[in-house]
């Protein structure tokens, strides 16, 4: 169990979307200091947050952020991108981009901050996955979130004896810039932030933030036909 009250937390992609809502909710729960990263830190407008520049795919940028935030005890790997590339028709560079941002990015950040959290007496890492970790949507985005889920499951075992707990957050559509062109029911980012932080405080290994995500997970053992209606005919 990890207390948020008084903790020093770093939220990647904390300037907008789910990340900004996490920053707001962290303040509401009495976090001692909250670093909010953005590629352009001037876009971080929350008055209580400490803005920090971070491009998660750039090792030098990650190292510089870790250098500046030596007091972190909770890391939230929230930053992510959805390129919606096509496996068969997009340039390979675009196919690789989701993996660079959503899989290698959080790994670079975690590798940089694990020694920091350890030096500060242990703490917590939360990785933002997706319902699409368990449901392929035809794009490398879902592959990147499946890979991140697996990464989280391995890191949880490696970090537990080092005093760092690990939570994976899964959620379906959320009402942010990422889904602005999608016409479908979407969760409120505030509900997602509340569920994520409840999970950290409870020491949950996994947080399923909405009914759609819970349904998708419940179908996994039933075989591909249960999740992909196209396979039934
Ligand atoms: N929205 C959904 O439906 C949904 C569903 C499931 C999971 N998620 C996941 O939730 C997380 C947050 O998404 P969101 O919905 O809040 O999306 P969003 O509003 O588009 O925000 C994306 C955030 O990620 C940051 N980011 C993107 N690429 C980055 C990079 N290369 N380096 C550093 N920061 C980068 C952005 O920072 P800048 O401000 O610098 O651009 C921004 O803060 C993502 O991991 C996403 O995959 C979203």
CATH homologous superfamily identity: NAD(P)-binding Rossmann-like Domain
Beta strand %? 5-15%
Give the strand tally.
7
Mean pLDDT comes to: 97
> Which second-level CATH architecture applies?
3-Layer(aba) Sandwich
Please give the alpha-carbon distance between the first and last residues.
Answer: 47 Å
Tell me roughly what share of residues is in helical segments.
Answer: 40-55%
* CATH fold-type name: Rossmann fold
Structural class: alpha/beta
CATH uppermost class: Alpha Beta
Radius of gyration: 17 Å
Helix-strand string = EHEEHEHEHEHEHH
Major sheet strand order: 3-2-1-4-5-6-7
Number of helices: 7
Protein name: Short-chain dehydrogenase
Family: Belongs to the short-chain dehydrogenases/reductases (SDR) family.
InterPro entries: NAD(P)-bd_dom_sf (IPR036291), SDR_fam (IPR002347)
GO molecular function: oxidoreductase activity
Q: How does this model look, in words?
A:
InterPro entries: NAD(P)-bd_dom_sf (IPR036291), SDR_fam (IPR002347). Keywords: Oxidoreductase. Belongs to the short-chain dehydrogenases/reductases (SDR) family. Helix content is 42%, strand content 15%. By secondary structure, it is α/β, with parallel strands linked by helices. The chain has a single domain, classed as Rossmann fold, CATH 3.40.50. Strands 3-2-1-4-5-6-7 form a 7-stranded parallel beta sheet, with helices on both faces. Helix 3 links the parallel strand 4 and strand 5. Helix 1 (17-28) crosses helix 5 (189-202), helix 2 (59-68) runs parallel beside helix 3 and helix 3 (92-119) runs parallel beside helix 4 (140-159). The longest helix is centred in the middle third of the chain and has 28 residues, at 92-119. The chain is globular. The site of NADP nicotinamide-adenine-dinucleotide phosphate has 28 residues, from helix 1.
């Amino acid at each position: 169990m990890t207390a948020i009250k008084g903790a020093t937390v770093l939220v990647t992609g904390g300037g907008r979307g789910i990340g900004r809502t996490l920053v707001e909710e962290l303040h509401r729960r009495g976090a001692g200091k909250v670093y909010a990263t953005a590629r352009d830190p001037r876009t971080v407008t929350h008055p209580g947050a400490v803005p920090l520049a971070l491009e998660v795919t750039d090792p030098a940028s990650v190292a510089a952020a870790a250098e500046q935030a030596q007091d972190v005890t909770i890391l939230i790997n929230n930053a992510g991108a959805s390129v919606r590339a096509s496996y068969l028709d997009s340039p390979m560079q675009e196919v690789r981009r989701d993996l660079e941002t959503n899989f290698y990015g959080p790994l670079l950040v975690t590798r940089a901050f694990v020694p920091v959290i350890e030096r500060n007496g242990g703490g917590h890492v939360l990785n933002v996955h997706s319902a699409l970790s368990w449901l392929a949507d035809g794009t490398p985005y879902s592959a990147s979130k499946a890979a991140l889920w697996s990464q989280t499951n391995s890191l949880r075992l490696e970090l537990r004896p080092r005093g760092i707990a690990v939570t994976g957050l899964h959620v379906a559509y959320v009402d942010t810039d990422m889904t602005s062109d999608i016409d479908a029911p979407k969760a409120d980012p505030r509900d997602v932030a509340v569920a994520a932080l409840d999970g950290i405080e409870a020491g949950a290994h996994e947080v399923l933030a909405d009914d759609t995500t819970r349904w998708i997970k419940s179908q996994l053992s039933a075989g591909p036909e249960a999740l992909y209606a196209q396979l039934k005919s």
